[in-house]
Design brief:
This protein is mostly helical and about 60 residues long. The protein has helices spanning about 15-25, 30-40, 45-55, and strands at about 1-5, 10. It is about 55% helix and about 5% strand. It is elongated.
Length: about 60
Amino acid sequence: MADKEKGKVWYKIMIDFDEEIKKFQPSLEVDDAEEAIYNNDVPDITDLIAKIMEDISK
């Protein structure tokens, strides 16, 4: 499809999603972040609140 008035040419491009998925590789940063999140034993908010309540009751 051409837009002669503006001097631009537009093309319809079809993406083969199956081929794109075969080529997909997750970012190393995502893998690193996932590993850090799952391997880190950080207390969650309920642990922190329980500790604060314990300290207050003493």
